[in-house]
Amino acid sequence: MWPSFVRNFVMALGMCLFLVACDSAEERAEKYLASALELIDAGDLDRAAIELRNVFELMSNHVEARETMARLMLDKNDKSAAYGHYLRLVEQQPDHIEGRTVLAEIAFEARNWQEFSRHATHAVTLAPDAPRSQIIDLALRYQEAIEARDGPARDALRDTAEHFAADRPDSDVLQQVLFDAYMRDRKPELALGQLDRMIALKPENRTLYTQRLGLLNQLQDFSAMEVQLLNMVDLFADEDGPKKDLIQFYVARKQIDKAESFFREIADPAAEDPTLFIGLVRFLRDMRNPEMARAELTTALTVSPQPDQLKILLAVLDFEAGAQDKAIADLQALLDQDTPTAQASDIKITLAQMQTQTNNVVEAQRLVNEVLGTDSGNVDALKMQAAWQIATDDTDAAIAGLRLALDKAPNDVAALTSMSEANARAGNRDLSWDFMALAVDASNNAAAPTLRYARVLAADERYLAAEEVLLSALRRDRSNTDLLVLLGEIYLASEDYSRADHVIKHLRSIGTDRTLAVVDALQARLLGSREGLEKALGYLEELAAREDSGLNTQMALLRAQLSSGQTAQALQQATALVAEHPENLSLRFILATSHAANGDLAVAETLLSALLQEDRNRMRIWSELYRLQRIQRRDTVASRTLQDGLAIDPDNRDLLWLQAAELEVAGDIDGAIANYERIYERNSGDLIAANNLASLLATYKTDADSFERAWIVARRLRDTDVPALQDTYGWITFRRGNVEESLSYLEAAATALTSDAIVQFHLGQVYGALDRRDAAIAQYRRMLELADENDPRPQFETARAEITRIEQLPATDE
Fold it and tell me: How far is CA 138 from CA 26, 99, 165, 211, 451, in A?
């Protein structure tokens, strides 16, 4: 028993500790906020930003701190970061007028029309008489006129904008409307003058200079571009962006010597911050050769104040050259040295990336956890952790970690992209698209994020928005084949044939092997869309008949003939080509499919079997052989083919898929689920696998764990317009009790999938739950008409029982 004075002391100490603990997270957050406000008043914006990030680590949803950080980012002209913070703000407070207004203005400047429309509509509704709202409303109507191709309305709004701009020359939105209008009027001189006025008003705004570069690039005034880039290097001397832009300009112009010369001017191996020198090494690796990069690194090690960072890059070069074990061992040696290195976290992250590439994910995760254990806000570690969390559908944890990463690095393109993926996986489509657009903006319209966003817009048939995104990227890189091909496809889809023709001519003028390989296919599609199938086939036949025609052209003609039903011509063509090139396995495969298309199934099967005897690892042939055998109702032989193929590659997606369908038909639902789980485990981003897995779990399993898993997997299907996916999401939503939400999904699915009995059953269940008795009975009867008498699935018996139950209910005034 302790003496009383000891007990009293312990109690007093405990009370002190309790009082210290009472300095809660909220109180500490308020202190950080007060400090940030003082630093802002003193003009120390960088330190203020650090204090605000401290607030978010304690209270991620602190509204005043988020407002302050958003305004701070605007003051620093970091609009991408400001957009991200305002986006978080309206997530918490959807009617935040400042947030909606600024988001609309930034989205308009970024030409992100979907997000502009969403936030602009909110802003105008919340404050219709506010001057900024009126300007936003004008811009909204201007964009609607463009989408409607209403020239007179657009011209009238341009004139109104000119009138408004006389009184509001500081309005970025008005100035952007005028710039866009002059560009659409094909008056580049007026557009250039407009940009110069905008730059005079805001000489610190780098975005305006970037737009001016895009216009000069469009005018192909490359000497003026170089002058402006050099000017930007001087104007923004403390920023690396203009320097990198100048180097990219030289590279795009194939002026590699100039690029290297400038890089060497700005990259000092003895600098305290080796970022630019590391950039030079990577440039030499990519533009010269790895040996030159290695030599540069080796020399710099003797003078660099940060030699460990250079050793990390040296290990990366080894890894890329194939010396993976050496690279990993060298990095481990850096970690194990007697004197702890300041770059320990960088080394562990690089090691983790290497271990991931060598399929040692467990070790990679251990290293990342070590980094986060000592630095919970390490951006690279958070990004890697989020990637694993997204892959396992732990989207809440991924989003939380990525928010922390983006608070520290708001313009990190990879983090923004991962945040988009996490929100898509969680079923938050609007947020996913927001972050996708942010990634495009933060990357300065780089090709990869632009293509990702444009494809999503095009899939949603938002062709104008996709076009704008692609054009912004092409102003930076006019010869990017991927961007041009997608732009051409969008013009074809939107039936804008004159612009599609312009893209095709541009691709042809580039003249690389890659562009020439795709341009003929685009040309054929253009002819098919504009003048009919026969014209497109005639064009391909002309190409194939040329003396310089290659096998790719011949095979393109073959595929076009098969897909258009000209199977006899395809067979004749394929037979001749195989006789000329008997060693070409791809041609022999097409010959087999040509025989199948002509009804010669036994011949096709013989040809495919012969191909497998030569190379049993050609997995596509296994799946095609299986399908042929099933068509011929040789089910036992087909199942054996499937098993033989899976014995060679147990994880082959197509074969597992075919087997899952076979198992489901046979009533082995657990076996089918196991196959989809296997596919999903290897690639949880596989949308169709996710749908099928969730559908089977929700349809045939009754336990709570299976249903919860079905919901987690299916959340990403929200807002889908694909009938099979609508059925899955609608049915799971219905089972979760959201009957009204499920109705629109299941009605759309049942209308499209009229021959799918289970889809019809699902809609019948919804009608029953809504007490729409006649509709429910009609739906169940429609489902039973599709039933096979030997079908063992329990839904049919349930439908019969429901018809009887409903018919026995007292009459209502339905």
Answer: 42, 19, 12, 22, 30
Per-residue DSSP letter, 341: P
What whole-number distance in Å separates Cα of residue 486 and Cα of residue 93? 37
Average pLDDT over residues 595-622: 91
Residue with token string 């696998």 = 689
- Locate 125 and state its tokens: 């509704």
Give tens-digit pLDDT for 577-590: 888 888 888 888 88
Helix H or strand E segment including 65: helix 63-75
- Model pLDDT, residue 306: 85
pTM: 0.76
- 189: which 2 tokens? 């001189």
| CA pair distance 803, 814, nearest whole angstrom | 16
For the stretch 664-668, contacts whose Cβ atoms lie closer than 8 Å and that sit 24 or more positions apart, written own/partner, are 664/696, 667/792, 667/793
Exposure string for 652-676, b = 16+ CB within 10 A, e = fewer:
bbbbbbbbbebbbeeeebeebbebb
DSSP code, position 811: P
Instruction: Let me know: does 490 contact 497? Beta carbons within 8 Å.
Output: no
- CA distances to 559, 570, 573, 591 from 597, rounded to whole Å, are 11, 9, 14, 10
What is the Cα–Cα distance from 174 to 157, expressed in whole angstroms? Answer: 10
Q: Whole-angstrom Cα distance, residue 545 to residue 165?
A: 60
Please give the full DSSP string across 741-802, using - where no structure is assigned: HHHHHHHHHHHH-TT-HHHHHHHHHHHHHTT-HHHHHHHHHHHHHT--TT---HHHHHHHHH
In whole numbers, what is the pLDDT of the chain averaged over residues? 88
First to last CA, the chain: 79
Per-residue confidence (pLDDT) for residue 513, from 0 to 100: 74
pLDDT confidence bin for 765, thresholds 50/70/90: very high
| Residues whose CB falls within 8 Å of the CB of residue 281, separated by 6 or more in sequence, listed in order | 293, 296, 297, 313
Q: Inform me whether the pLDDT recorded for 42 exceeds 80.
A: yes
Question: Cβ neighbours of residue 809 under 8 Å, at least 6 residues apart?
Answer: 773
The answer to whether the CB of 612 falls within 8 A of the CB of 621 is yes
- Biggest CA pair distance of the chain: 106
- Reported as a single tens digit per residue, the pLDDT across 298-321 is 999 999 988 999 999 999 999 999
Residues comprising the chain, all counted: 814
Q: How far is CA 10 from the centre of its chain?
A: 58
Report whether pLDDT(13) > 70: no
How many other CB atoms sit within 10 Å of the CB of residue 614? 10
Least confident of 22-36, 65-79, 551-565, 695-709: 551-565
Long-range contacts of 264-271 (CB under 8 A, 24+ apart): 269/296, 269/299, 269/300, 269/303, 269/304, 270/303, 270/304, 270/305, 271/305
Which positions ≥6 away from 271 have C-beta within 8 Å? Answer: 277, 305
pLDDT value at residue 517: 73
- The DSSP symbol for 286 reads I
What does the alpha-carbon distance between residue 103 and residue 219 come to, in Å, rounded to a whole number?
A: 31
Q: How far apart are CA 704 and CA 489, in angstroms?
A: 45
Is a pLDDT exceeding 60 seen at residue 11?
no
Q: Which residue's structure tokens are 């018919």?
A: 807
